[in-house]
Amino acid sequence: MSHTKEELEEMIAEMIPLIAQHKADGAMSTAETCEKIKQVYENELHYVLTGEKITMPYEEWYDG
Asked: What residue numbers bound the domain in which 20 lies?
């Protein structure tokens, strides 16, 4: 599913206080997960704006 520029900007903006709150609560694992989600949104926004795809480091993120 593709999002609009405005939707992605809103989704990114919503992640910022969420990440800060998780860090303040000491939930670092949750904060890191939120940061990864935010990065996905930022990369999708980059694609929407430029048409350039960015390779995500999913293998590095995998904990399994």
From this structure: 5-61
Amino acid at 37: I
Rounded Cα–Cα distance for residues 25 and 2 (Å): 32
Domain count, the chain: 1
Record the pTM. 0.83
Report pLDDT digits (tens) over 2-60.
Answer: 899 999 999 999 999 999 999 999 999 999 999 999 999 999 999 999 999 888 777 77
Which ranges constitute the DSSP H helices of 1-64?
A: 5-24, 28-50, 58-61
Task: Determine the distance from the C-alpha atom of residue 63 to the mean position of all C-alpha atoms in its chain, rounded to a whole number.
Answer: 17
> Which tokens belong to 25?
């609560």
* Cβ pair 44, 14 in contact under 8 A: no
Contact, 3 vs 44, CB < 8 A?
yes
